[in-house]
Design goal:
The chain is mainly alpha-helical and 439 residues long. It is built from 15 helices and six strands. The protein is elongated and about 95 Å long. It starts with 12 loop residues before the first helix and ends in a 12-residue tail after the last helix.
Length: 439
Amino acid sequence: MTKLWDKGVCEDKLVDRFTVGNDRELDMRLAEYDVIGSIAHITMLNSVGLLEVEEFNVLKCELEQLLEIIKKGEFRIEPDVEDIHSQVELYLTKKVGETGKKIHSGRSRNDQVLVDIKLYLKQEILQFKNEIGDLFKLLQSLSEKYKDVLMPGYTHYQVAMPSSFGLWFGSYAEALVDDVYLLVAAWRVVDQNPLGSAAGYGSSFPIDRDMTTKLLGFSTMNYNSISAQLSRGKSEKAVANALASIASTLNKLAVDCTMFMNSNYEFISFPDELTTGSSIMPHKKNPDVWELIRANCNIIQSVPNEITMLVTNLPHGYHRDFQLLKEILFPALDKMHTCIKMSMLMLSSIKINREILEDSKYDYLFTVEEVNRLVLEGVPFREAYKRVGEEVASGRFVPEKKIAHTHKGSIGNLCTFEIKSKMDEALAQFTCPTGEVLV
């Protein structure tokens, strides 16, 4: 196996396979960012006199060409090469000879992989920001469209009080605002440049970390070189916590939809092509999509704990344990993107039952409305409660199915605009060093 740090000692093949693990496959996600980081690094090396102008021009040209190859999907990590960092450097060495070996001056694979991962996670966060923004808009549009359609509200799985589809859809829209707050927090953790920290203790070369911070689009840097290394695991966990929050929201939505499309409820339905059938029951329309969203979101919610268990009890500095962070987090990123996409697909085709409350089994939804009506007429609350309770017990309760909720956040006052303003403010917190809002 080709290794940049080879000392001329042949290692056991089993050790090679075990230590490399799944890095070749997972590192392909980092290829573009490894090249971008390298371009910034050699630009800085040239500025401080560690690369001649001609050497810099040759390396920059080759790296820019390599970046195009990667974007076209034509770049691969060779079977006998350890990781993306080795592959990029070996590619340059084959292209320009000894000059290619100078690209590593002033950095270590430790800060190199930190840069790659942070740049990659920044891009992932921005993608989630946009996806959540689209889901938010869809939920708000459904909330407004069905704001006058009443449905049962539940506590303890028991019929409780009147709700509405406007209130239900709107609740998940506002819940996404909290998820964006956690994405912003993850963004701020990740948006710090570690390049120049080397193996965790800096470098004796006169490197310019301010320059690479600006070139790579980081808002700030991990100033302390040991702190930069301490961010390994912390950055991944911050992103995982944000994913877990989004997953929690989608999980509850999936549970609701799975329940509400049940034939015992029949609150909502979906086109046949979005449901699945049974191998023996021809009438079945199974909510498999929502069930898999529910399951995948449960898996995603476990990821912060997996990361915690991996990095717990490690002293400062680099440890090979960190390599496994990619195996935990990267699949979770894919699952989250897919769950958001499938939620959008299902919600875009949802059908609403507008006659739910015509069924007499929902009459008791309006007992609180009757109690409140009596209180407004001057009857003490406990007396009103007792009267209505006696009517229910004797079978004399006849509901007046009129709703007059007007306070903020109620059925009659969804505060759609106010919630949108909250989301707009949250999304605006994703800014670049110039203060421009990132889209």
